[in-house]
């Protein structure tokens, strides 16, 4: 329960009983949107994320590792290397198999997509972003959103990640710096989305694998816990409200208390993502259950799009951040 790797994996999947093995929450969301006729772009910035893994044969995702998208074979051994690669992967012979044909097709598609994406991002200007890690990632997201018409997508899903919150000592000083980085990055992102007139079409969901103890340890830090507080922001988010049940007793005798300020959660991630998925274009109950396989265990405590947003838009984007 308090293992970073295990709980990060569970937070990205939201499928505790592995009813859709090998998939992630955002990948299943992308699948459902594709089935509803939307053209969906799915991007992980900084590192590949299992959150974007969809079912085989449906949606796919793109990983962008930094602001300057790397070209295919940037230092070729010969000026004919590109021609040779294209020729080798275009050739079809009697002995060609399904796997070989699929591999070649993906290679050709990837080369073309890489060139289009690199050119498009290079030619896209956005405002100034802080040069910290999360700021650089959100700058890439902003560039991608600005290129949506060129890419032909009417729905985009982004995954960005920020680490370094495991403050078992000196929590106050360390957390202050982290929050300054987040604040500066979000300010720049919101300003850019407003400049692009896309802020009303964006929802950013902050997530983490678990919360921290309410009481400090001997090193003035906090330790691994369970329940936590998270936020959703966006131009059409019905903000200035706290959803979920606040604990009635924060003492060690409280019904939700496990000790050391570790609390049992009262709101599931299924509840949050159910409302986000509806706003994004997945309204059918069967589809919602495919996106969130464990949703049925929390059916009485689901948030709807009306709970989270003031209206439903025709063109929406979602961006998940994790730590």
Describe it.
The chain has 323 residues and is an alpha/beta fold. 38% of the residues lie in helices and 11% in strands. The chain has a six-stranded mixed beta sheet, with helices on both faces. Strand 6 (257-259) and strand 7 form a beta hairpin. The longest helix has 25 residues, at 98-122. The chain is globular. The relative contact order is 0.15.
Give structural attributes:
323 residues, alpha/beta, two-stranded antiparallel ribbon, 38% helix, globular
Summing up helix and strand content along with how strands pair, one would put the structural category as alpha/beta
Computed over alpha carbons, the radius of gyration is: 22 Å
Specify the helix fraction band: 25-40%
Strand order of the largest sheet: 2-1-3-8-4-5
Q: Helical segment tally?
A: 10
Average predicted confidence as pLDDT = 91
Please trace the helix and strand order, writing H or E for each element. HHEEHHHHEHEEEEHHHE
pLDDT under 50 segments (min length 5)? Answer: none
User: How far apart lie the N and C ends?
Assistant: 16 Å
Which strand-content bin applies to the residues?
Answer: 5-15%
Main sheet makeup: 6 strands, mixed
Number of strands: 8
Shape call: globular
